[in-house]
Amino acid sequence: MVKAFEFARSPKIIFGTGKIEELSPIVKSFGNDILLVTGKNSFLNSRHGEYLLHTFDLTGIRYHKFVVNSEPSPYMIDQAVIANRDNPIKCVVAIGGGSVIDAGKAISAMLYKKESITEYLEGVGNKEHPGTKVPVIAMPTTSGTGCETSKNAVISQIGIHGFKKSLRHDVLMPDYAIVDPELTLNCPPDVTAASGMDCFTQLVESYLSAKANPITDAMVLDALKYVKSSLIRSWKWGQDIEARTGMSYAAMISGIGLTNAGLGVVHGFASSIGGLFIVPHGVVCGTLMAVSNKITVEKLRKNNDTSVALNKYATLGKLFAETDDKSNDWYIDFFIDHLYALSDQLNIKKLGKYGIEEKHFQGIIAKTDSKANPVKFSSEDFYKVLEERV
Q1: Helices (H), the chain
Q2: What would the pLDDT profile of 178-217 be if each residue is shown by its tens digit?
Q3: Smallest Cα–Cα separation from 145: which of 28, 247, 25?
Q4: CB of 164 within 8 A of CB of 155?
Q5: Computed from CA positions of residues 100, 103, 108, 109, in that sequence, does the dihedral angle turn out positive or negative?
Q6: Phi, psi dihedrals of residue 87, rounded to the nearest 5°
Q7: N or C: which end of the chain has fewer CB within 10 A?
């Protein structure tokens, strides 16, 4: 029997190489004044950036620029809103990695509000956002977070009392997601690796999630085939457009997966660690993915769990092993070994490289939860994960 579930709406998705050409006509449908949110250098200095600004000039689109040079903080969003509140912004166009698109979504949601965004963040503020916003067009330049198809914007304040929390509302889903794999061709290898592991983690965690449903399972499993064929290729050969296209598609689907099925232990750590230390989100995911899944499997086996989760792990093993004559236990073990080998091959750093030490473990664990992981983690389990990857 199919269990009950809900499925969130998605943006209008425009996917494929060269689709950047469709941006200006879509912008014009909202009006001629936009807020253009980008990263510090990479996109605006590229041929695609030059083409886009030239197109805006030719078509009479007036743009106010806002540059995101780090993960978005409450201060950054508040300042962007103050600077643009009196501008006649008809649409926010966010072109960049996850931080840029999250910033664009957050700014669009706060342009009609006078309070700080902090007051609306989950687990931090005490106000519920009413859902008013300026329309958003998201164009990713990396293949990782999938935030072009998610309904939350992640905001970080790093420090001893820091946090990494979401502004979340159904209407925060971008109105359009224009996914043009050509925009990822200049993504450097280290960012390709980290963002790719974020995408991979999101797909696996949403597939294994206690909140998964038949629609997310089907979409995520299909997307994982592209991770298998494209992640290493896009890391090794950045100009391989076929591989870049595969990863762009996988990342886009990962956003739909996390929105509708939730995530697991790895992203529980990503939230707590990201509020305390300056560590790239994809690195946290990539370095903790193997050990977190290893401990999840150990706990499922210890509990003699013969339910959905272990069967799903076996399905993942079959997908990546390309053989069908082994036992389920063999496939499960193969998948865990594959995760370890992949993080090593991609040179994903351990957390100790970012200043995290054993003395920080309890502070991290106190802020970490298992989210929708198929089995709940104890403090001891969280400790084992950190101990292995610091």
Answers
A1: 23-30, 47-59, 74-84, 98-110, 189-208, 214-236, 241-261, 265-276, 281-302, 308-321, 328-345, 361-366, 379-389
A2: 999 999 999 999 999 999 999 999 999 999 999 999 999 9
A3: 247
A4: yes
A5: positive
A6: -80, 145
A7: N
